[in-house]
Amino acid sequence: MVDLLPVLQNILQDLESSWTPLHRAYIMAI
User: Fold this and answer.
1) Domain range for residue 26?
2) Which of the 8 DSSP states describes residue 4?
3) What is the pLDDT of residue 1?
4) Looking at residue 24, what is its pLDDT?
5) What per-residue string of b and e applies to 1-30 under the rule 16 or more CB within 10 Å gives b?
6) Which regions of the chain are under pLDDT 50?
7) Which of 9, 15, 18, 19 sits between 20 and 30 A of 26, alpha carbons compared?
8) Does the predicted model carry a pTM greater than 0.70?
């Protein structure tokens, strides 16, 4: 069985790195 924990952590890091600028842009738009 593949250990998914590192994969999930990588996905979360990618989401955080891409989500933060989007979230800031969203707040700036309002």
Assistant:
1) 1-30
2) -
3) 66
4) 82
5) eeeeeeeeeeeeeeeeeeeeeeeeeeeeee
6) none
7) 9
8) no
Instruction: Specify the pLDDT at position 10.
Output: 93
SS3 content of the chain, % helix, strand, coil (to 5): 85, 0, 15
Give the count of domains, the chain.
1
Question: Token pair 């990588």 is at which residue?
Answer: 10
Distance CA 9, CA 30 (A): 31
- pLDDT for 16: 82
User: What CA–CA distances, in Å, run from 2 to 5, 11, 12, 17?
Assistant: 9, 15, 18, 25
Question: Which residue matches tokens 């999930």?
Answer: 8
